[in-house]
Design a protein that fits this description.
About 70% of the residues lie in helices and about 5% in strands. The chain contains 9 helices and 2 strands; from the N terminus they run αββαααααααα.
Length: about 230
């Protein structure tokens, strides 16, 4: 049986759950990834304080870590988790930590360290740029250059453009000079879209918000922009 067939389906509690590979289109995961990030940003920008946000995200991270630890140690519980969350998971996550704790940990750091606009943008890069990069890479990556890490040029360009668009829209609603908006749009687009290419052994859900947030914050400091 082909590797894809072996890894794309497992049996849980009497019925098959299809688990996708990284190079599958997997639209449900992309929609969930984007929706979760947009919801977190919306709640944070709605007026929730930094302390309240960190405590809320920290509680969610604690629950996520408990579930991850339990399912990786107890096969029966793992099957139950996969039964309900299987449509959003990859086959590679059956016996290792999923992307959820990394996502929440990055959100905690972003909210806890960066000014609110920078934190929101760093999370928007992850919520929007990452799934768009994956979508374009899967659909059109075979027509473009592939990097050593498996990422495609077309996917990376799509991510950079998406992050630039998000940055431009976001800073245009803030009292920032148009010249500074243009520069921050470029910095944010490149940082958000290319953070996953850095040679770091870290999950993309963690590296993208943290790296792009620091890059954008540094640019704001150099431009004399404060929030």
């Amino acid at each position: 049986m082909a590797k894809k067939e072996l890894s794309a389906k497992i049996w849980t509690t009497g019925f098959p759950v299809r688990l996708h590979l990284r190079n599958d289109l997997h639209l449900a995961r992309k929609v969930w990834h984007m929706g979760t990030g947009l919801l977190m940003v919306a709640i944070y920008l709605s007026g929730l304080s930094r302390t309240g946000s960190v405590l809320t995200l920290g509680s969610l991270l604690g629950v996520a870590l408990l579930i991850e630890g339990a399912r990786l140690r107890m096969p029966a519980f793992n099957k139950k988790v996969l039964r309900y969350w299987g449509p959003l998971m990859r086959s590679s996550e059956v016996n290792r930590v999923s992307g959820v704790p990394y996502y929440l940990a990055a959100a905690i750091l972003a909210v806890g360290i960066f000014p609110k606009p920078i934190a929101a943008l760093s999370l928007l890069y992850l919520a929007c740029g990452d799934p768009i990069a994956s979508l374009f890479g899967i659909l059109y990556g075979h027509h473009s250059v592939r990097f050593a890490n498996g990422k495609s040029l077309v996917g990376s360009v799509a991510s950079v453009v998406t992050c630039m668009f998000v940055t431009f829209l976001f800073f245009n609603i803030l009292p920032v000079r148009i010249g500074d908006v243009a520069l921050l749009t470029l910095v944010g687009g490149l940082a958000g879209g290319l953070a996953e290419h850095l040679p770091l052994e870290v999950d993309d859900n963690f590296s993208i918000p943290v790296i792009s947030g620091f890059a954008l914050w540094l640019a704001c400091i150099l431009l004399g922009i404060s929030f």
